[in-house]
Write a structure and sequence with these properties.
Blueprint (H helix, E strand, L loop, with lengths): L2 H12 L25 H10 L2 H5 L18 H19 L3 H10 L8 H11 L6 H12 L10 H8 L10 H24 L10 H7 L3 H16 L9 H19 L8 H17 L6 H8 L4 H10 L3 H12 L7
């Protein structure tokens, strides 16, 4: 018996009857020989962790564009916080930690530079539209490894696709990540807003604080405990009604005071213009894209989608550098 098979048996004996077992995975699009050490979801986690798109997250905006200071979140640190929240909940409920970690680490791989400003720009200008969750799946299925993709399991791809409010994953592990994403960004975006002087703890309305706490740490702890206690030994992942309502009010408060705050978002129109300008440029000069991306057009992929692929994969720094190279005059040296 291989180590993988022993681990699969351990899952079957130890995990909740509602857990998604590695041995019962719906499998990959392309069949592969099993690893003799790692179950399938652990293998998916490793593939995501070693991917280029994962490494690029370190230089992509979470909420605040080019903030001054080393402690503001990036898309990478957001991803790690989502993963940690999800693993804490999964461990407490005896669900599959490897699966939640793989989904969490992969959920934002397709995100644009400059956060949701970049996403809005591509969605507005591309005739096929643009959604970062759909692009994240496209990244792992089509774009990684020079067009081969990562060939992840169906459960991981489903969790990545359905991590937003509009979606609903078919595994409990996917539902955990869906909650953990919201918990993470509400928690750390408020923390960053307080660090940036946009909010203070005292600004949180009492009707919210009385239910889930008056500090970022208290609220994070309350959300996670509530999900665990409400979901324990049930075939669902949910919050209690009072906490779910408080979370909804807190999210609305964050939209009003942070996500739509003119001070916090003052640079976003510039970022959107930059993205739209690059998109227009590469449609006219498709030959400037890397060879492996140009070959996608030969295989029947629409040029507009390929240009979106290229731009959405950029980091903030690379997008700015490309824009400067194309449109900012250089000093003349005699």
């Amino acid at each position: 018996m291989t180590i993988r098979e022993q681990l699969e048996l351990w899952e079957k004996e130890y995990l909740s009857p509602y857990a998604t077992l590695s041995m019962h995975s719906k499998g990959r699009e392309r069949e592969e020989e099993q690893c003799d050490i790692r179950p399938v979801f652990q293998r998916d986690r490793d593939r995501i962790l070693h991917s280029k798109s994962f490494r690029r997250l370190k230089d992509k905006t979470q909420v605040f564009l080019t903030p001054e200071g080393d402690h503001y979140r990036t898309r990478l640190t957001h991803t790690l916080e989502v993963s940690q929240n999800a693993r804490t909940i999964a461990k407490a409920l005896r669900l599959n930690e490897d699966l939640v970690e793989a989904i969490a680490l992969g959920h934002d791989l397709g995100h644009t530079p400059f956060g949701h400003a970049g996403e809005r720009a591509l969605n507005r200008i591309c005739p096929y539209g643009f959604e970062h969750n759909v692009q994240s799946v496209r990244t792992v299925e089509r774009l990684e490894k020079g067009g081969q993709g990562l060939n992840l399991t169906a459960e991981v791809r489903d969790g990545i696709l359905n991590h937003q409010t509009a979606g609903m994953p078919f595994t409990l592990e996917g539902k955990i990540v869906r909650f953990s994403d919201k918990i993470a960004y509400i928690h750390h975006d408020m923390d960053d807003a307080i660090r940036g002087g946009i909010l203070t703890e005292k600004d949180v309305p009492r009707e919210i604080g009385d239910v889930i706490g008056y500090t970022t740490g208290e609220r994070l702890d309350h959300f996670i405990h509530d999900i665990v206690t409400t979901s324990f030994e049930t075939d669902d992942i949910r919050m209690s009604e009072p906490v779910a309502e408080a979370m909804k009010k807190l999210r609305n408060f964050m939209f009003e005071r942070v996500y739509q705050n003119p001070e916090a978002k003052s640079e976003e129109s510039k970022a959107e213009m930059l993205i739209e300008t690059l998109y227009t440029h590469y449609l006219k000069h498709f030959e400037e894209l890397p060879a492996d991306m140009r070959r996608m057009a030969d295989a029947g992929e629409p040029v507009e989608k390929i240009v979106c692929d290229y731009i959405s994969a950029m980091t903030d720094r690379f997008a700015i550098a490309v824009y400067e190279e194309l449109y900012i005059p250089k000093s003349w040296h005699g």
